[in-house]
Automatic annotation (TrEMBL):
Domain Core-binding (CB) per the UniProt entry, residue ranges: 8-99
HAMAP family in UniProt: Recomb_XerC_XerD (MF_01808)
Highest taxon, organism lineage: Bacteria
GO cellular component, one term: cytoplasm
Major localization class: cytoplasm
Assembly mode: Forms a cyclic heterotetrameric complex composed of two molecules of XerC and two molecules of XerD.
Organism of this sequence: Arboricoccus pini
SUPFAM superfamilies: DNA breaking-rejoining enzymes, lambda integrase-like, N-terminal domain
UniProt gene name: xerC
Keyword Cell cycle: yes
Name of the molecule in the record: Tyrosine recombinase XerC
General function of this protein: Site-specific tyrosine recombinase, which acts by catalyzing the cutting and rejoining of the recombining DNA molecules. The XerC-XerD complex is essential to convert dimers of the bacterial chromosome into monomers to permit their segregation at cell division. It also contributes to the segregational stability of plasmids.
Length: 312
């Protein structure tokens, strides 16, 4: 059941909202599950708070104090501000959808202000560390074609700024008949949004080496990167290899596959690349998401200054 404590009319609206997020906004299953969980938490609280089965009419009658009671409950449970902000965004989204699609409006929600929080800065690797990861990836643990595969994946993450899900989600046809001639790649990112990313020769060479050594026949509409049994490569295997590299190279705990994407963006920015170009390469919908890397670059400059300046 979608919402355990909801009346039928509310349960039907919640299902329709999630369907719209799935088909119209094309949100990922993980994001949809988070929205559903947040809404279920909110409705479950209101069922106890109001001592009644929660219906659409119940939600329309909520006062600012009712919303604040839910936020206070989350605060008392010790939940992070970022978690509550995300949950509140989901609840606001549901109310906004009801208002737009069905004319169901509750003005009380506008009186609620979620506590602000500072998003943690990305933690990229130094350029030398990122290069060491890509060079060592095929020499640690695995041998043969699996070593070639691991190196190709990690080179792709750092060299093109892909998310791990984007890399392992590629099909064989994406790199063409001759991967050595690959100069750009069509990537499907969040929300099924497509973008074109340029491919460096070192990436093309790594992918070509992997394909040449891979023992499986890879159909055009099948996965590019496969596991030991020929199925699509799972992210846990890439993460495990990164943990081994982290230990071997004495890297911090923040050195994850996603940190290679952060490193890609930060190193481009440090080299003078335009922020909007980086936005396009990363597939960010909003420039404000990309702007967080300016804070990373600035903090690194401050650290260098504090270490090097004679009066620091």
């Amino acid at each position: 059941m979608l919402l355990l404590h909801a009346a039928d009319d509310l349960a039907q609206l919640a299902k329709a909202w999630l369907d719209s997020l799935r088909h119209e906004r094309r949100l990922s299953p993980r994001t949809l599950a988070a929205y559903q969980s947040d809404l279920a938490d909110f409705v479950g609280f209101m069922q106890e708070h109001l001592a009644e089965e929660v219906s659409v009419a119940s939600l329309m009658a909520l006062r600012p104090a009712d919303f604040r009671a839910w936020l206070a409950k989350r605060h008392n449970e010790g939940l992070a501000k970022s978690s509550t902000a995300r949950s509140m965004a989901g609840v606001r989204g549901f109310f906004a959808w009801m208002d737009k699609r069905h004319g169901l409006h509750n003005p009380s929600l506008k009186a609620i202000r979620t506590a602000s929080f500072r998003r943690p800065l990305p933690r990229p690797l130094a350029a030398s560390q990122a290069i060491a990861v890509t060079e060592m990836a095929g020499d640690l643990g695995a041998t043969g074609w699996i070593a070639d595969r691991d190196r190709a994946v990690l080179v792709l993450l750092y060299g093109a700024g892909l998310r791990i899900g984007e890399a392992i989600g590629l099909d064989r046809r994406a790199v063409g008949v001759d991967p050595t001639a690959l100069v750009e790649l069509r990537v499907v990112g969040k929300g099924q949004k497509e973008r074109i990313v340029p491919i460096l020769p070192v990436i093309a060479a790594a992918i070509a080496q992997y394909l040449a050594s891979c023992p499986f026949v890879l159909p055009a509409d099948g996965p590019l990167f496969v596991g030991a049994r020929g199925g699509r490569l799972q992210p846990s295997l890439v993460q495990a290899q990164m943990r081994r590299l982290r230990q071997h190279l004495d890297l911090p705990e923040t050195a994850t596959p996603h940190a290679l994407r952060h490193s890609f963006a930060t190193h481009l920015l440090s080299a003078g690349t335009d922020l909007r170009a980086i936005q396009e390469l990363l597939g960010h919908k909003s420039l404000s998401t990309t702007q967080i890397y300016t804070a990373v670059d600035g903090s690194r400059l401050q650290a260098v200054f504090a270490k090097a300046h004679p009066r620091a």
